[in-house]
From TrEMBL:
Organism: Georgenia soli
GO cellular component, one term: cytoplasm
Catalysed conversion reaction: Fe-coproporphyrin III + 2 H(+) = coproporphyrin III + Fe(2+)
UniProt keywords, alphabetically: Cytoplasm, Heme biosynthesis, Iron, Lyase, Metal-binding, Porphyrin biosynthesis
A Pfam family assignment: Ferrochelatase
Name of the protein: Coproporphyrin III ferrochelatase
Keyword Membrane: no
Class of enzymatic activity (EC top level): lyase
Ligand binding (Fe(2+)): H188, E279
Length: 375
């Protein structure tokens, strides 16, 4: 039996984008922060992170690699649709990519975003980008219908890739210290208002999603390693002004607290990132490592899901599942942990609060009424 993505005629991998060379850094940061009230001092600081790596973000190459693996996996299952990659903040820009897709005949596109967790930044903001592109293209007389697969933080493939990475990191630490070495899961900090808005009575918040998947990863990794793993969740990459509260603790703080409690070894697992983004190679591999060195803590950083085969297969399962749902079938939705599958279509008003301000721009892939929101 061949797999079908009917009714979709194309797949879009939608990501953040990043600079390719030093001259790109400032324009990229302007794109990211347009109208966001991020202080210049923070932008200069983040710019330095990019310059330290030659003005080039690792994210584009990682997306190209993921794109290639998605194409291979879909082809292996007999699916023959165009699979393209577009970004929110840098070339190849989303609107251009969608215009090309339309030109080549696509009318119904299924989107996969490179954020596993749901919050304004990882979900609704991408929906707003999609809406903006759809509306721009509609003005050009190009009609496109776009859906987005559900949040996949608790997908078995994503979890399996993270379990492998944690087990490998403990193996690198060596046999002796493992039982006493705590595991620190790390994700992107967000404003606490965004965190609160990401949860409702019927839906776990951004941090609760992380705690749920972290518990699932720990359970499986501990079983494989044959010892208990003490763990916690920490955050990195806070921005905004010092007066705006963001989710805490910061990972550097956590490292100091663990050292004070007697730890000598630590494993960092950046589950909040699907690949080795700048936050991972700078905020963790550079900054947090410096902290660990100063503290005399030996640190191993677990790999991100990247292009791990289980992860890629899980993403393709999600594409196939959503297509089946759209055909009116009732596909089984397999998840790990206590939270169950995320909604295919976001509820009205979902994740609208960004940093204390309710977003009022059109959003796709949700309640159709949200396409006609106006500024
Ligand atoms: C939750 C979350 C994810 C994870 C989910 C996901 O993966 O999407 C994420 C990913 C990313 N964030 C990235 C880069 C940046 N994010 C910024 C700013 C912000 N991020 C936020 C949140 C998140 N961001 C927030 C609440 C802000 C404040 C301003 C705003 O509300 O928009 C800024 C501006 C400077 C600064 O404030 O730090 C930059 C440069 C890159 C590219 C990295 C690379 O080049 O490898 C990636 C993948
Ligand atoms: Fe970010």
């Amino acid at each position: 039996m061949t797999t079908s993505l009917t009714p979709y005629d194309a797949v879009l991998l939608l990501s953040f984008g990043g600079p390719e060379k030093p001259e790109d850094v400032v324009p990229f940061l302007r794109n990211v922060t347009a109208g966001r009230g991020i202080p210049d001092s923070r932008l200069e600081e983040v710019g330095e992170h990019y310059y330290a790596f030659g003005g080039r973000s690792p994210i584009n190459d990682q997306n190209k690699a993921l794109l290639a693996e998605l194409r291979t996996e879909l082809a292996a299952r007999g699916v023959d649709v165009p699979v393209v990659w577009g970004n929110r903040n840098w070339d190849p820009y989303l609107t251009d990519v969608l215009r090309d897709l339309h030109e080549s005949g696509a009318r119904r596109v299924l989107t996969l975003v490179t954020s596993a967790f749901a919050s304004y930044s990882g979900c609704r903001q991408y929906r707003e980008n999609l809406a903006a592109s759809i509306l721009t293209l509609a003005e050009e007389g190009r009609e496109l219908a776009i859906d987005k697969v559900r949040a996949y933080f608790n997908d078995p493939g994503f979890v399996a890739a993270n379990v492998d990475a944690v087990v490998e990191a403990y193996e690198r630490l060596g046999a002796a210290p493992s039982p006493q070495a705590p595991l620190v899961f790390v994700t992107h900090s967000i404003p606490t208002t965004m965190e609160v808005a990401s949860g409702t009575e019927s839906r776990a918040s951004y941090s609760a999603q992380h705690l749920d998947v972290a518990a699932a990863v720990v359970e499986r990794a501990a079983e494989r390693l044959g010892h208990k793993i003490p763990w916690e969740l920490a955050y990195c990459s806070r921005s905004g002004t010092p007066f705006t509260p963001w989710t805490e603790p910061d990972v550097n703080r956590t490292l100091a607290a663990l050292k004070a409690d007697g730890a000598e070894h630590v494993v960092l697992a950046p589950i909040g990132f699907v690949s080795d983004h700048m936050e991972v190679i700078y905020d963790l591999d550079t900054e947090a490592r410096e902290t660990a060195d100063e503290l005399g803590l030996r640190m191993e950083r677990a790999a991100t899901a990247g292009t791990a085969p289980e992860f890629v297969a899980g993403l393709v399962d999600l594409l196939v599942e959503r297509a089946a749902s759209e055909r009116g079938e009732n596909p089984e939705k397999v998840t790990v942990g206590a939270l169950g599958p995320w909604r295919d279509v976001c509820a009205p008003g979902c994740c609208r609060l960004r940093a204390g301000v309710e977003s009022t721009v059109p959003a796709a892939c949700g309640d159709p009424a949200e396409m006609s929101l106006t500024r």
